[in-house]
Amino acid sequence: MTAKVLLLDVVGLTADALRSMPRLSRMASAGSRAELGTVLPAVTCSVQSSVLTGRMPSGHGVVGNGWYFRELGDVLLWRQHNRLVAGEKLWETARHRTGGAYTSANLGWWYAMGASTDLTVTPRPIYHADGRKSPDFYARPPALHDELRDALGEFPLFQYWGPTASIRSTRWIVDATRRVLDRPDAPELTMAYLPHLDYDLQRHGPHAPEATRAAADLDRAMAPLLDQADAQGVTVVALAEYGIAAADRPVDVNRALRREGLLEVYVQDGREQLDPWTSRAFAVADHQVAHVYVSDPADVPRVAAILEGLDGVDEVLDRAAQARYGLDHARSGELVAVAAPGAWFTYYFWLDDAAAPEYARGVDIHRKPGYDPAELFFDPADRLAKAKAAGNLARKALGLRYAMSTVPLDPSCVLGTHGRLPDSAADTPLLLSSDPAFLDGAGDRVHATAVRDLVLRHQGLLGERMPQPAGHDRVAPR
């Protein structure tokens, strides 16, 4: 019989966070522990894809949480379909090696839509024809949707991201995962995504009292799931894609390119919009990494010089340098900028806040051409921001249209970030297991691409552990 595994993505889990998590610490002390050698960029979609395929971004193609889709002429972040990830996934390999006698479940890991897992649960809002957005989730098989909704209520979408993000969304995923483990046909592999540490560590920084409280709250929320897995003989493997480091320098890379005449905009209803079709260079900002797309190869040296001259840029990678990090893929920018410690990249391309696009002041992860951590805040400069949000929710309850324009355009409130390779043990992610033998022979540092084979080996579906790739898990870009 194949051993059952619960694979938890505990976002932001580091040694510092673990000190405030007694239940998870107890599991690690009785089991096994290592640092996780993450990939560049150290962001959700890229690292998860490396864990599940055993490939670097150059192999699976997920070069960030989003990128410029050249064939569409558009920047798209947080796409959901699994076909975007090249390579055989962990559960697919296991299924082949067991002649099909292997089942799997995905609760919240990215690229869940269209995946070949047997059970799938992933946030999926309802976008109404009148512009309203309501919480919901996608589930497969379809009957699982009503089963979970009736037992747990609607998925708390507005506590999953945005200024009201909280422990509620993580608790919902924990409770849903417990129900999956309780099924008579519980899968051999159950994957669950627990995002809670992402919120207050980006809001307040990793060393703030709020970060300590968030870790303790997450540990309490996880405890029933860990206890259940222990009682059922399910091996727990917990990892983080990245650790969160302190942030104090937002870098406006697109504004720099615009001032040099390389980035173009067009105007609709008095608001500026990024024009990637005509821009000679623009950046897709993603935490501490920015893919910079340059339409004319002759402009690459000039753009590289501009980026290298920006305060807060640590390294600029051309194609050859990208190859050293396993990031050389057709989806990558002609150049990739890596932020210095404490710095991170905004997506802002307008020069006057009065001309900012409407979506800039809202939580709008699919329209923004870059990641925006300021979405975790109500605008500190607007004393009425929370009251306005409450009024908009009242309008929504009445079925009226509303615009939730509460996000600040001053990014200095963001105090935590990630994306570059870790600079120290403090921001290095961890890999933990409840099984003392899970990491046998793996050492005290395991690369993200090796996790897939460690799980297969634990389940008796792999002989010798595959060698880890060399040269891609340096502690820092320099």
Detail the topology: elements first, then pairings.
Blueprint: E1 5-10, H1 15-18, H2 22-30, E2 32-37, H3 44-53, H4 57-60, E3 66-69, E4 74-77, H5 90-97, E5 104-107, E6 119-123, E7 126-127, E8 133-134, E9 137-140, H6 143-152, H7 167-181, E10 189-194, H8 197-204, H9 209-231, E11 235-239, E12 245-246, E13 249-251, H10 253-259, E14 265-268, E15 271-274, E16 281-286, E17 289-294, H11 300-308, E18 313-317, H12 319-324, E19 335-339, E20 343-345, H13 385-397, E21 416-417, E22 430-433, E23 445-447, H14 451-458
Parallel strand pairs: 1-10, 1-11, 2-23, 5-6, 5-10, 13-20
Antiparallel strand pairs: 2-22, 3-4, 6-9, 7-8, 11-22, 12-21, 14-15, 16-17, 17-19, 18-19
Protein model, in words:
Helices cover 28% and strands 20% of the residues. It is an alpha/beta fold. The chain has two domains: 5-243 and 420-459, Alkaline Phosphatase, subunit A (3-Layer(aba) Sandwich); 249-414, no CATH class. The longest helix is centred in the middle third of the chain and has 23 residues, at 209-231. InterPro entries: Alkaline_phosphatase_core_sf, Phosphodiest/P_Trfase, Phosphonoacetate_hydro_insert. It comes from Agromyces kandeliae. This is Alkaline phosphatase family protein.
Provide keyphrases for this structure.
disordered C terminus; four-stranded antiparallel β-sheet; 478 residues; Alkaline Phosphatase, subunit A; 2 domains; alpha/beta; globular
Number of helical segments? 14
Report Rg.
Answer: 22 Å
**How big a fraction of the residues is strand?**
15-25%
Spans where pLDDT lies below 50 across 5 or more residues: 474-478
Total domain count: 2
Considering DSSP H and I runs of 4 or more, what fraction of the residues is helical? 25-40%
What is the overall pLDDT average? 93
- CATH architectural designation of the largest domain: 3-Layer(aba) Sandwich
Give the N-terminus to C-terminus distance in angstroms.
Answer: 46 Å
Count of individual beta strands: 23
Can you tell me the CATH topology of the largest domain?
Alkaline Phosphatase, subunit A
Instruction: Just give the CATH class of the largest domain.
Output: Alpha Beta
How would you write the strand order of the largest sheet? 9-6-5-10-1-11-22-2-23
Largest sheet: 9 strands, mixed
Task: Assign the structural class, choosing from mainly alpha, mainly beta, alpha/beta, alpha+beta, or little secondary structure.
Answer: alpha/beta
Protein name: Alkaline phosphatase family protein
Pfam families: Phosphodiest
GO molecular function: hydrolase activity
InterPro entries: Alkaline_phosphatase_core_sf, Phosphodiest/P_Trfase, Phosphonoacetate_hydro_insert
